Amino acid sequence: MASVSTSMPAVTFTRPNPFPICFKEAKYEFLKCLRLPMYAVSIMLFPIMFYILFGLVMGRQTINGISTTVYLIPAYGTFGVMGASLFGTAATLASDRGFGWLQVKKASPMPIYAYFLAKLIMSMIFSTADVLMLLALGFAFGGVHLAPLVAVKLVLTLVSGALPFCAMGLAIGYFAGPTSAPAVINVFYLPMSFCSGLWMPFMFLPKFIQKIAVFLPPYHLSQLAFRQVGFGQSGPSLWHWESLAGFALICLGVAWVGHQRDQKAQG
Amino acid sequence: MATAQVLPIQSGRVQQNVAQMRGANKNFGEVRALVNFDFNVRAGTLTALLGPNGAGKTTAIKLLLGLARPTTGQVSVFGADPAESATRTRVGAMLQVGRVPETLRVREHIDLFSSYYPNPLPITEVLSIAGLEDLRNRRFGDLSGGQKQRVLFALAICGNPDLLFLDEPTVGLDVEARHLLWQEIRNLLGRGKTVVLTTHYLEEADALADRVAVINKGSIIAEGTPAEIKSRTAGKKIRCVTQLSLDVIRKIKGVIDVKTDRETTVIQANDPESVLRGLLSLDLEVSGIEVTSAGLEDAFLALTREDA
Q: Which residues of B touch A31 (CB under 8 A)?
């Protein structure tokens, strides 16, 4: 048993090592969400189900000479990464804030970055699982052939999208109420997915939606992913990355405002 | 908004102060949650912050935990800023929470919080102190209200902190669960820990506290041992059944206050012996006489009424 003292408190403070904290924080954040059917099912299942229905069951079709089974991997991959990241950060943050759990964590010596890093890591794990399942289905049943390097680059591109979408999740999570958060997320998630051409090939979308899409981050992420499988518009890809980075920074700014607002309300 | 000042305060003298608030004010917009709050926590003692809901107890705890900053005034814990992570490694807190992640198991919650501290207690010891051995693999969402409170208590103590803040730890618990938690708190004091507890249960402060600070409307209106606080309300309480009217009783020397409680008459007296002599001489039929000390509850009601 550790010794106790009632005398002069020692002045030496030892700081906890941040690495085990971040690891455990991420591990339990992952387990927490994995065991939530609402989260695990809606995030993991929908992209997979859509892929099976529209990619595999509907039969082989081609878009601009590329099989839909290939086309839909970057599309639903973007959809899955976005869902995993938004629900993983926004819904959990809104709940932790609204129900006072974040206060308990803040009162502990936990470094606050561990809390946010855990959400990012957890979102990336779910995102990776999502994309890998799509690829596995495509390889097994959709006649998809991708060179290993291409597949790896596709996964990395899609999973990097967790960064801007987690930033967006923070922005939503700081302003949404604990019970309304999932609804608020869907208000952004579903229309953005549609307008970015994740459900219907971009060139089939009405012209005015195509014009809106360039302001939407899923459009940029999906364009980067499409390029990896040889489908997409020509032109430099840098501006897609820049758009995603700019969007992430704006969202972090909004989240920071929300954080300040919370601090003020609580003191 | 005025800038918050958190300065280390020199501690000294015989009994060590582990936490101090000096002239702390906390405003939320127009609302003055704490007004000129002076508060000391001595090492190895249990101090109870007692007051009605909305009195400012939780605000005081939040300032001491560094979750909120004083609008003006000073707050220090172990002579340092309570918001410093180094300070927090020596502090544990049990706060009022609406919802705790429900899909994690009891031992997982404790494992995670233990990792925040440099010298945590072994998990088996935490489970045993909080009486959670049999529930270690249970998911939080499957626990009863009392069991949930015990998990929050376990999270407060798992880092082996020297100073514990318990914000309304027994609210919503049944009598048995409350007494169990009291015993756990007493055990901590036995191990030399310092505890600050907020409560609106007078019985709780009376049962546990070395010192009580009565708070109302953001100010400390009385401070001392439970016995000292009780003595702040004068004298004794006399209950009896009598035919005398309240006005007649009120004229007896030594009577402070009279009221009826169903068929009995309740007399607040600062000189119970002379009141009893007067009562017996005026009404030969008086029956069911009962003399009791004013409880902490009476003191509390009297104090908060004076203040109002």
A: 103-104, 108
* Partner residue opposite A28 with nearest CB, options B112, B125, B162: B112
- Give the pLDDT confidence of B139-175 residue by residue, as tens digits: 999 998 889 999 999 999 999 999 999 999 988 788 8
Q: Do A107 and B66 touch (CB under 8 A)?
A: yes
Three-state SS annotation for chain A: CCCCCCCCCCCCCCCCCHHHHHHHHHHHHHHHHHCCHHHHHHHHHHHHHHHHHHHHHCCCCEECCEEHHHHHHHHHHHHHHHHHHHHHHHHHHHHHHHCCHHHHHHHCCCCHHHHHHHHHHHHHHHHHHHHHHHHHHHHHHCCCCCCHHHHHHHHHHHHHCHHHHHHHHHHHHCCCCCCCHHHHHHHHHHHHHHHCCCCCCHHHCCHHHHHHHCCCHHHHHHHHHHHHCCCCCCCCCHHHHHHHHHHHHHHHHHHHHHHHHHHHHHC
Q: How far apart are CA B112 and CA B103, in angstroms?
A: 14
Sign of CA dihedral A110, A111, A116, A122: negative
Domains of chain B: 17-230 (3.40.50.300), 234-307 (3.30.70.980)
**Is the pLDDT at A38 greater than 90, yes or no?**
no
pTM of the model: 0.83
Kindly state the percentage of chain B with pLDDT values over 90: 45
- Which one is predicted more confidently, B131 or A64? B131
Q: Say yes or no for a CB contact (<8 Å) between A32 and B63.
A: no
Q: What is the pLDDT of residues A25-35, one digit of tens each?
A: 999 999 999 99
Residue A20 has pLDDT above 90, yes or no: no
Q: Is the pLDDT of residue A64 over 80?
A: no
User: Is the separation of the CB atoms in B92 and B159 below 8 Å?
Assistant: yes
**B54 contacts B46 by C-beta, under 8 angstroms:** no
Residues of B in contact with A122 (CB under 8 A): none
pLDDT at position B295 is 65
* Contacting residues for B103 by C-beta, under 8 A, at least 6 apart: A31, A32, A33, A35, A36, B139, B140, B141
In angstroms, the separation between the Cα of residue A233 and the nearest Cα of chain B is 45
Contact A77, A134 (CB under 8 A): yes
Q: How far is CA A7 from CA A3, A121, B115, B211, in A?
A: 12, 43, 26, 19
Q: What interface predicted TM-score (ipTM) does this complex get? A: 0.86
Residue B234 in 3-state DSSP? coil
Write the CA distances from B191 to A114, B137, B197, integer angstroms: 32, 27, 17
